[in-house]
Design a protein that fits this description.
heterodimer, A: about 450 residues, alpha/beta, Urease, subunit C, domain 1, TIM Barrel, 2 domains, 8-stranded mixed beta sheet, 11 helices, B: about 425 residues, 12 helices, about 25% helix, globular
């Protein structure tokens, strides 16, 4: 499953030692459901196409047919989607839901293990509070998959996890089956501010940031060598003790083996260029730069190295490294042939990711580019799926893919449009028109009025 | 539809059929959201003279006007107003020397006024202006004090300027005021109540206080002086507060003291909407702020603005989220979302134009399109509330604003990466 999921990233690395099996495996299986036929809608497929007056059939959690005339099984629930739009389920490649939940207070701030510049040993999933009410709010916004990342205080923040936005009791029930782990790295101001500025330790400068990454990769390379040497000896029947497991190096080693994808918080163009060189030095791949405010300055470089840039449409000015914002950023990266992603990093805008994409599209058109809705939808569906290594499974409306999709009551690029129904693996997880299909977290239940829900 | 609107026009405005002299600007054939009783005028014109709106109508003769802007298929609104920002007093949030929003200094509270910190040269101003934001309320903040001090109204333009140096007094109650109250919101309430009472006492015994023949009051003379217009009802008191019970406590204090109350933040205001409407208390809200982000805001919801408006509350918009300063123009997206969640479209437009202008005392100049007011307006390439609509041209007091910012300059120099060595010669 892992190999399948990794189709678009890091396929050239030999599967030497995949390390331990995931100690926290996904326990998610989609609920059983009847086939569903959504008929006569406008589809934005996430593969660049817009299909008008088209129907889509969901069977056993997968997209089973797309076309004008579809023979649905008699058991199918038929939903007339005339005048409505269907997109792939939205994917937020940068989220802290569950690790920075609402309500926000000290007892709940679990997204940054700031005690050391390298905390590659921590897993964001171990901080996830499944009853964070922000999950269901994002669901109502059409978000079906999220990458939950540790914060950006550290050079190596820890492992990120890809979740399906399924109301669950355990985080394992939310884990996207087959999705690779990610490693959160951070450039620039945050690590040097937190360690040099607040804790008076290294790194206190950008150059020390870089020394910190390289030192860690040297140790990780050595760890890989030791493991390979052990594996070699074992294969020859030699009796030898295995090297001691080190959780921190294990995460980094998995990056070097191509099994964990690097998601790198990085604002400035020159820092992205340096990170690309570090990746070459240690033979790993940067999958995506996040918060890439200056991606437009090095868009050609990103295209050349097949690196995604995850961007906001117009956030800026909270740090000097976020000062050179241009609203054409997403479109400019896209036009250069790099993989452009619109991300949220916000529990507010994750609920309106379609609007975030719409703003980026409008800004791109204003900059002189020709951009269609059918193309711009990729920024919040198939492109983030690619960055998460799950694009063979979800992120587009194609036969055989997971039936993760959103029925919109109108053009998803309009501020007035809202999700009507959200399907995950063919199951109706949210229905704006049916209160009985609107999940309520434990937190929300009875908290304002004991006989009612929060909303 | 169109005929009906024209009928309204003919009642509300005198048709100008006489030729108009050069030096004036005429915007023609636009759909004009006047936000007055005249409603939305279709295929209508705006005549601008001496920086002000001289006439609105459908038959203004363009033949001798110096500058005619054809706005066919375009829509015109008054310039947008964000009712709660730090514009002009914050360049980069984490660059200390560029952020004058709050102070830990405890010498002054209500006497503190943000105006000397305003930087009309801030790059945030052209950025927001070219997206249609022409005015902003600028607030001070304080975690240490119940009264943060006085805020201003900023007029964006070329150049930007301060329209009103003391537009409102800002304070906070509820959990965000707990630090100022030493750990309990009740203590913050007491400080506010005492300050207002002491101001009353000070005003009637000013001479005795000044000459030292009076008991010690809870605030210094400068702070007491600054609160006099508040207790007189001449200066709005904007209180940041969310929880419904805190709002009710404030309403009771208003009943006792009689100040002009505006509440900001106001996540749970919809729960006491009827009481707010009855007490004529305006509400500044970010319609997209629906997170139960603390226990004061458990009832936050996306249709809060619609619920408040339906109850007859005067609603003012800010937002979106923490971007209410750097991208204060996104108040337009906030308004669009308020409409998506049930608010009347005209009401949503007024919540970022006429309502803030009225509440903060500059509706004689801005906030709606009618003869005599500033010709401060935006020509949009479509529905002004729609997310993909762009501001095509902004006018401030009749002046055509260059639609350029540092951000558009950066964009333009990097549009072509093919000739890398030339980038830094593109100006």
């Amino acid at each position: 499953m892992l190999a399948l999921a990794l189709n678009s990233a890091c396929t050239d690395k030999p599967d030497v030692i995949t390390g331990q099996e995931d100690p926290f495996p996904s326990t998610y299986t989609p609920a059983a459901t009847s086939p569903v036929l959504l008929s006569n809608a406008t589809l934005l497929t996430g593969t660049g196409s817009r299909l008008d007056n088209t129907s889509i059939l969901l069977i056993d959690g997968k997209i089973s047919a797309i076309g004008r005339e579809i023979d649905a099984p008699g058991s199918a629930v038929v939903i007339d989607a005339s005048g409505k739009w269907i997109t792939p389920g939205l994917i937020d490649v940068h989220s802290h839901l569950g690790v920075y939940p609402a309500p926000s207070h000290e007892g709940n701030l679990d997204g940054n293990e700031i005690t050391s510049p390298n905390t590659a040993q921590v897993y964001a999933e171990h901080s996830v509070w499944t009853q964070d009410p922000q999950f269901t709010l994002a669901l109502a916004g059409g978000v079906t998959t999220l990458q939950i990342l540790p914060g950006s205080a550290n050079l190596f923040g820890g492992r990120g996890v890809t979740l399906k936005n399924i109301p669950s009791r355990t985080v394992q029930e939310m884990k996207f089956p087959g999705a690779p782990y990610s490693l959160k790295m951070a450039c620039g101001e945050n690590p040097k501010r937190v360690y040099g500025g607040e804790l008076k330790q290294t790194p206190a400068s950008r150059m020390a940031n870089v020394a910190g990454y390289r030192t860690a990769w040297i140790e990780a390379s050595d760890y890989v060598n030791k493991q390979e040497s052990y594996a070699g000896k074992q294969a020859q029947g030699e009796e030898t003790d295995p090297p001691l497991r080190d959780l921190q190096l294990e995460t980094l080693a998995e990056v070097l083996r191509g099994n964990i994808l690097v998601h790198n918080h990085c604002y400035r163009g020159e820092e992205m260029a340096v990170m690309i060189d570090i990746a070459r030095e240690f033979n790993y791949k940067v999958t995506a730069f996040h918060h890439a405010v200056e991606a437009y300055k090095v868009a050609d470089l990103l295209a050349e190295h097949d690196i995604c840039a995850a961007m906001w449409p117009e956030w800026w000015g909270f740090k000097h490294e976020a000062y050179d914002m241009v609203e054409g950023n997403v479109a400019m990266v896209d036009a250069a042939g790099a993989c452009a992603i619109v991300h949220s990093d916000s529990a507010i805008t994750v609920q309106h990711l379609n609007q975030e994409a719409a703003k980026a599209m409008a800004a791109g058109i204003d900059a002189g580019y020709h951009i269609t809705r059918a193309h711009a939808i990729n920024w919040i569906t198939s492109n983030p799926a690619r960055a998460l290594g799950i694009d063979a499974l979800t992120g587009s409306l194609e036969v055989g893919k997971m039936a993760d999709l959103v029925l919109w009551d109108g053009d998803p690029f309009s501020v007035y449009s809202k999700t009507e129904k959200v399907f995950i693996d063919g199951v109706l997880i949210y229905d704006r028109l049916d209160e009985t299909r609107q999940p309520v977290t434990d937190f929300d239940l009875g908290i304002i009025d004991p006989t009612d829900e929060r909303l | 539809m169109r005929r009906g609107i024209k009928l309204i026009v003919s009642i509300a405005f005198v048709f100008l059929t006489v030729p108009v002299p050069a030096g004036e600007i005429l915007i023609t054939n636009a759909s004009i959201h006047t936000l007055t009783g005249a409603g939305t005028l279709e295929n209508a014109d705006i005549l601008i003279r001496d920086g002000a709106i001289a006439a609105l109508g459908t038959d203004i003769d363009p033949s001798s006007v110096g500058k005619v802007i054809d706005a066919s298929d375009k829509q015109v609104t008054p310039g947008l107003i964000n009712a709660y920002t730090y514009l002009g007093v914050m360049e980069i949030s984490q660059v200390e020397g560029t952020d004058d929003v709050s102070t830990a200094d405890e010498q002054f509270s209500s006497a503190f006024n943000i105006f000397p910190a305003v930087n009309p040269g801030s790059t945030l101003l052209p950025h927001n202006l070219i997206h249609g934001l022409t005015h902003a309320v600028v607030a001070p903040e304080s975690n240490q004090r119940v009264f943060a001090g006085q805020g201003i109204v900023l007029q964006l333009g070329k150049p930007s300027s301060i329209l009103n140096k003391s537009a409102a007094m800002f304070a906070r109650l509820g959990s965000s005021s707990s630090e100022a109250g030493g750990g309990s919101r009740a203590s913050s309430y007491l400080k506010m109540q005492q300050a207002l009472a002491d101001t009353q006492e000070y005003r009637t015994n000013r001479h005795a206080v000044m000459s030292g023949n009076w008991r010690d009051l809870s605030l210094g003379v400068h702070d007491l002086e600054a609160l006099i217009p508040v207790i007189d009802g001449n200066l709005p008191l904007v209180v940041n507060v969310h929880r419904a019970s805190d709002i009710e406590v404030l309403l009771e204090l208003k009943r006792q003291s009689g100040f002009k109350l505006v509440i900001a933040g106001a996540s749970e205001a919809w729960r006491v909407a009827d009481k707010l409407a009855e007490a004529d208390v305006a509400v500044i809200i970010d319609p997209m702020a629906n997170l139960p982000i603390d226990f004061d805001q458990l009832a936050a919801r996306l249709d809060a603005a619609a619920l408040l408006d339906a109850a007859g509350v005067t609603v003012l918009f800010t937002g979106v989220d923490f971007l209410h300063t750097h991208n204060a123009f996104l108040v337009r997206q906030a308004a669009g979302n308020a409409v998506a969640y049930g608010m009347d479209k005209t009401a949503a437009l007024k919540a970022m134009t006429l309502n803030p202008a009225t509440v903060f005392g500059f509706a004689d100049q801005a906030g709606s399109l009618e003869p005599g007011k500033q010709a401060t307006l935006v020509i949009w390439d479509g529905d002004p509330l729609e997310i993909m609509t762009l501001a095509e041209q902004v006018l401030v007091k009749g002046k055509i604003i260059p639609m350029t910012s540092r951000s558009t300059r950066l964009r333009d120099r990097y549009l072509d990466l093919d000739n890398e060595r030339e980038i830094f010669y593109r100006k």
